[in-house]
Amino acid sequence: MKILELQLLAFGPFTNLCLDLSAGNHGLQVLFGPNEAGKSSALRALRALLYGIPNNTPDNFLHDNPKLRLGGRLRHSDGTELAVIRRKGLKNTLLGFDERPLPEATLNKFLAGVGQDLFTTMFGIDHPALQRGGEEILQGGGEVGQSLYSAALGGISLRQIQQSLDQEARQLFLPQGQNPKINKSLTAYRAAKRTIEEYSLTGSTWAQHTHALEEAMAERQAVLDELANLGKEQHRLERLRMALPNIARRRELCLKLQEYHDVVLLPPEFAEHRREVMQRLEQAREAETHSRQALERLSLERQGLVVPEALLEHAETITLLQQRLGSHRKAAQDRSRLLGQRRQVEAEVQGLLAKLPASLALGPVKERRRQVAHRARVQELARQYQARVESLDRATKDVHKYTDQLTKTIEALNALATPQDPAELRAAVARARQQGDLEEARDQTQRALQMEAQQAQTEIGRLGLWFGTLEELERLPLPSRETIDQFEAAYSKLSADAGHLTAELLKMQADVTELERQLDELRLAGAVPSEDDVERARQHRDQLWNRVRRVWLDGESTGHDADSQRTGRDLAEAYADSVAQADEVADRLRREAERVTRQAALLAQREKATKTLEQLAAHRDALDAELRQQRQRWRSLWQPAGITPLSPREMRAWLDQHAKLLQRAERVREYRYQLDRLEDRLREHRLALRQALLHLGACDVATDDTFSALLARGEALVETIDEAARHRRELHKQLATIERDLEGARHDQHEAAELLTRWQHDWTTAVASLGLDGQALPVEAHAVLEVLDELLKRQDEAEGLAQRIAGIDRDAEVFSQEVKHFVAQVAPDLTDTPVEQAVAQLHARLAKAQTNAVRKAELNKQIAAQEAALQTAQSTIDRMAERLQALCRQAGCAHPDELPAAEARSAQLRQWQFDLSALEAQLLEQAAGATLDHLIAEAEAADADALPVQLADIAHRQRELESRRSSLDQTIGREQTILGQMDGSARAAEAAETAHALLAELRDGVERYVRLRLAALMLRRQIERYRVSHQGPLVSRASDLFAQLTLGSFAKLETDYNEQDQPVLVGVRADGRRVEVKGMSDGTCDQLFLALRLASLEQYLANNEPLPFIVDDILIQFDDQRAEAALWVLLELSTKTQVIFFTHHWRLVELAQKVAVSGDVTIQRLGS
Amino acid sequence: MFKFLHAADIHLDSPLRGLEQYDGAPVEQIRGATRQAFVNLVDLAIAERVAFVLLAGDLYDGDWKDYNTGLFFAAQMTRLREAGIRAFLIAGNHDAASQLTRYLRLPDNVTMFSVQQPETVHLDAFNVALHGQGFYARAVTDDLSVAYPQPEPHLLNIGLLHTSVDGREGHEPYAPCSRDGLLLKGYDYWALGHVHRREILHREPWIVFPGNIQGRHVREVGPKGCTLVTVQGDQIISATHRDLDVLRWAVCNVDVSGAATADDVVDHVRQALERELAASGGRPLAVRVRLLGACKAHGELAAHHERWTNEIRTVATDVGNGTLWIEQVKLHTHAQADLDQMLARDDAMGDLLRSLLDWDTDEPFLQEVANEFRDLVRKLPAELRSGDEAIDLNNPQTLRQAAEDVKHLLLARLLSQEDGR
Q1: Residue B336's pLDDT band (boundaries 50, 70, 90)?
Q2: Chain B residues with beta carbon closer than 8 angstroms to that of A210
Q3: Is B108 helix (H, G, I), strand (E, B) or coil?
Q4: Exposed e or buried b per residue across A533-553, where buried means at least 16 C-beta atoms within 10 angstroms of its C-beta
Q5: Residue A422, class by beta-carbon neighbours within 10 Å (0-12 exposed, 13-18 middle, 19+ buried)?
């Protein structure tokens, strides 16, 4: 199939571009698309036309997805043609030129069953694929099968596929592994199986434990029953054993009770009662005696007491008099003290009067009291005096202060300078400020510039090979980087070749030397006979024989020469010798045939080696010449720049360095420009600032002041002017305030003076009454007032004292009269006794009478009490005697003295009765429900001596049974626990589930493993089969192509065996040297791969419908000669199928043009 | 009116087969599925207040030895006893082989029919006569039904029988008999067991296989449970199926024809699984996914089967919210490219395909293959070396099947851009 036309109707960057690919039979169509011209789009378009536009196409950036259209005309090898349109979509994307859908199968015939994947791999090759192919061959060591098969499949990495198959399989299973999936599953599966075993319960185990449990339970029941019976018997015997002594004691008691049958049983409280009655009788008798004695004593004392009734009647009056006597005595004492006091006060009054002004001292006391009444007014005025004087004083001081301030402020105002207008300067400063720190910016730029320039200079120095300025450097005519790359490639190739050659040369020289040595060795071992030697010996023999014949048959003389002297005998011997010698030589030749052939071989080898050596030397000379030429060209390349170049690699570094310097030069220019602009601005602002300053009279501004100095100066000046204006405003404000304050102070002064005048008038009036004139100070007025007060107080005191003395005298007289009158009435014997004494006597008599009266009343009360007690005792004695009689009757006693004995007997009887009932209660308890008689009968029937033995037996049996029961309990517990654990658990079943899950996992793993391994084995088998059946023709064809592509550097390809005995590809040099793949350069490997690819493709084309071979820029790393060779090879391929060659590189187009001279090559350019 | 339950083939503690565990699979939900299903059966009997329960054989798996299974069964029977429900059992082929039946003591509400000869039990309260005989050996090849007694007049006659009738695919032909033979007996209801697929062989009189109560592998798909029979007077008026299964099995065929990428395939599968899930009524599902059709994605699927199986499992976990278990993903897709056409081509690819056809006559190669797998085979457990689930690597058929997959695997790798080049 051939693509006659590719129409890029709407695809990628193209609109309605038609590529005519019809030229020639198949033809080599070169499509040149510089970068961005859409080479890749065109390449994709080719595939898309045949196989559809991919869903995620990148070619929809200009035309929307639904609008994408490609067209094409195809021609089958049988001549049929097909014109189709391809649109983007999910269905019906193939259309005829009439836009009607065509079935996709329409293309089948033209594509001959090649799917998109296969088309891409087999009929397309790009540079990465070429490199991968080369790399693959290198990695595989040129293994024939893999190399051939890989090339046949379009360069697939079989090695990688095999490795990935192997690796995936290893991740699944390793015979000795632990971690691969299958190995792990196997381990887990075995563990699950063990778990099943572990948790599985067998039926017999269950039955066994159930049976054991049931048996133990039954036996336990039997043991319990027996224990119960034993317990009962033990209890009965114990009971009897305990009852026996009680029964004996009971019998004894019954006998004693029999004896006491006639004893009166007294109530238990009888004895107590009897003792109490007797005690109370005794007590009553004692009380009777005591009362009688007390009555006698009390009556006697009462008779001795005397009580004067008359005195007692006046008891109140006497007490009153006694009290008044105290007051009377005290008043007498007071009177003499008061008299003394009155005398002293009167003396003080006289003293005070002397202190007063004469006018006052002589006046009556009443007048003095009126004067004192003025005191409040005088005091008030005195208080006001100080305030009036002080306020006047203050006001006067204020007036002085404000006047002073006013003067000072006016002076300050006058001292201020005249105001100025700073507007222009302010504006200039603001504009300058807006520019920022211009000087710093300028300095920085300057520094950067200097540094850059300096750096550039240093780098130029370091650059080497050339010296000059930066500007000159920029203008240097230098070769391009690409040219250098080309030179480097050429150099490296040349030097590599030279290296190879030298190595080979050395090897060859060594070979020759070795051969020489071996030859010498042979010769030293003795001359090696040659065919020539035999020939010579035989000739000598034959000559002699001829002579012998001539002598013998022709009678010739034996000698007409040197030998003629010899006798015939000599001749015969000579002949015999010659025969022997010839035989000897021939024998030796035969015997030493090996040495002979060896020598011959060595000689031949030496000859060959020497020739090769010459060839190599010639080759090397040629190469050296070429190298020299190359160097010359290299140097001339740099001539225009005046540079003697180093190696291309170094020069490339040099160019990098140069490029950096160019950048630096650019920066230097940039800095200079910036610097100029900054300087201009600086000048402009300095001028403006300076003028504004001068206008404000700053005459000291120098023409060369810096910008920052001017700016600072301007700002300072503006600040100073503003400050002066502000100060003036403040002073004016202060002046107004001071004037206002001064006015106020003057007003206050005037008011204070007036108030003082009015006070003086009031004061004069007020002090006149104190005998003082208006000039007197308030202090003086105070002093007079104080003396007056004191005087009045003393006079009042003297008068009070006189009145009290008179009162005392009056009271004493009244008291004496009253006493005399009373004594006459009550105690006439005291009439002549002085008043005080009489009252005291009366009082003493009254006290005595009162004491006696009290004692008598007391005695009367005690006598009455004793009489009552006596009566009570007598009645108790009667009652108790009666009760004693009753008790005797109750106990059947004739006399109370017999009562204690009766009580003792009764108590004894009671005790025995109590003991009996306690015993019987105990026995009833021991009878455990049976009657007493039954118990007694049972006890009498039992053998008391056998009881302990029987009980011991029972206890022993019980212990045995208890121990058995405990052991049975343990058995039951154990079995129940075991059976409880057999609970129908699903653990074994769950483990079985896990095991089956693992089986599934295993199955899956095994199936995958089998497939992976089988795939690897089958692929290996196929590769080997392919090699066996295709190696001959493919290698042969590839060999030609390889020679062509390597420009004869390699003469051919051959197969050989490597150390593992695998067939591998080797290159053969023109001189027959074999080069293994690993000895080939990367480029040569790429060419080897290309040769194999093309050979396989040709083989395919020979048997199948041809499809276009799409080549995408594979030659970019070939040098021109090899690229040209490759183009020739492709041209050759284009006789078998269409070859479409895409390239970005004009160089390749040029080469193609060279090739086009003699072939079907069309060159088209994509885009404009 | 009364009801009774008819179930069979309980296979208690028989593990589910073929379910490889993976993250997101509903492992916990379906643990002990056969037990859960059996508990469901007892729950149903109690809830429906049935008169009695008939279990027509195969309570246990024949080779299962854990007596705990028997104890579990006994415990469930005790639950029936507490509800006053009697149970009637016959031994199936599995039970005859099982050691569990030997020691098991069942509560007194359970009656096990003799294995020696047919027995009849009369349930006077319901006017019912039950006839039955269990398997005396693992393989009973006689027609047991022949010896069953004649129906008793005026009673509802029910026969319990473990049988394959006249043969059912996938089931051993034990106790063979014919449908007509059973009909001739004149019983009202034949409660059959052994065949795991539910099947009503005849109505009025009834011959019923209730199927097993829980599917255990992918060949036992669909709802599983028991038959609830309602009797009015002396007439059976209905026999309806009731679901008991805990996990349902399904085979989900997904046509992925034309899928361009493996991701598209996964999308198709997602939709198919959503449909499948909607039909399962919220039960956990074990699904075998079969991918069918010609598609571009085939190469990728074949080359990385494990990866795409995992993708599908992830989607299933997502869709099923943890109730879907993807048992396997089977690839029945093929590439759009015509393999036959490729096979005919005279190039390296055609060569490869041809070499994949004749390998099984290549003796040295077969020997190489045998050597390759010797270590593996030696290590595999017995279950994988023989039996239903075995992978017999010595069997050429196994290898041929694998070779078919290998063909796709190799083609895909050779043609796929990412890995091959």
Answers
A1: low
A2: 105
A3: coil
A4: bbeebbebbeebeebbeebee
A5: buried
Distance of CA A745 to the CA centre of its chain: 80
Q: Residue B251's beta-bridge partner residues?
A: B288
Instruction: State whether B362 and A1021 contact (CB < 8 Å).
Output: yes
Q: Which residue has the tokens 């509800």?
A: B83
CB pairs < 8 Å spanning A and B: 223
Contacts of B86 (CB under 8 A, 6+ apart): B51, B52, B53, B80, B109, B110, B111, B123
Task: With H, G, I as helix, E, B as strand and everything else as coil, classify residue B206.
Answer: strand
Chain A 1057-1096, residues with CB within 8 Å of chain B CB atoms: 1096
Q: Which residues of chain A neighbour B32 with C-beta distances below 8 Å? A: 986, 989-990, 993
Does ipTM come in above 0.90? no
Question: pLDDT > 70: what percent of chain B?
Answer: 98
Say if B347 is an interface residue toward chain A (CB within 8 Å): yes
For the stretch B246-288, pLDDT in tens is: 999 999 999 988 788 889 999 999 999 998 888 887 789 999 9
- Give tens-digit pLDDT for A635-680: 888 888 778 888 888 888 888 888 888 888 888 888 889 888 888 8
Burial of A34 (0-12, 13-18, 19+ CB in 10 A): middle
Is the N-terminal amide bond of B205 cis, ω within 30° of 0?
A: yes
Q: Which pLDDT value is given to residue B251?
A: 94
Contacts of B144 (CB under 8 A, 6+ apart): B118, B133, B161, B163, B175, B177
CA angle (A196, A197, A200) in 5-degree steps: 80
HSE on the CB side for A613, CA within 13 Å? Answer: 14
Q: Which residue has the tokens 């204070």?
A: A752
**Cβ distance of A1009 and B376 shorter than 8 Å:** yes
Whether A759 shows a pLDDT value over 90: the answer reads no
CB B25 within 8 A of CB B238: no
**A461 min Cα distance to partner chain B (Å):** 51
Does the pLDDT of residue B412 top 60, yes or no? yes
How far is residue A848's CA from residue A854's CA, in Å, rounded to a whole number?
A: 10
In chain B, residues with a C-beta closer than 8 Å to the C-beta of A1026 are 348, 351
Amino acid at position B402, single letter: A
Asked if B381 and A189 touch (Cβ cutoff 8 Å), the reply is yes
How distant is the Cα of B168 from the closest Cα of chain A, in angstroms?
26
Q: Judge residue A1067's burial from the number of C-beta atoms within 10 Å of its C-beta, 0-12 exposed, 13-18 middle, 19 or more buried.
A: buried
Instruction: In whole angstroms, give the CA distance from residue A811 to residue A941.
Output: 127
Cα A200 from Cα B162, distance rounded (Å):
28
Our measurement of the distance from residue A817's CA atom to the centroid of its chain's CA atoms, rounded to an integer in Å, reads 123
Who among B335, B384, B405 is closest to A1006 (CB)? B384
Contact by Cβ (8 Å): A122, A47: no
Chain A's closest residue to B72, CA to CA, is A984
More confident residue, A749 or B239: B239
Query: Where residue A364 falls among pLDDT bands split at 50, 70, 90?
Result: low
Helices (H) and strands (E) in chain A, counts: 32, 13
Return the pLDDT at A1168.
Answer: 58
For every residue of B241-277, DSSP letters joined together read: EEE--SSEEEEEEEE-TT--SHHHHHHHHHHHHHHHH
Average pLDDT for chain A: 84
Which amino acid, one-letter code, is at A1034?
L
What chain A residue is nearest to B98 in terms of C-alpha separation?
A203
Amino acid at A165: L
Dig out the tokens for A486 from the structure: 């080309």
Judge whether residue B418 has pLDDT over 50. Answer: no
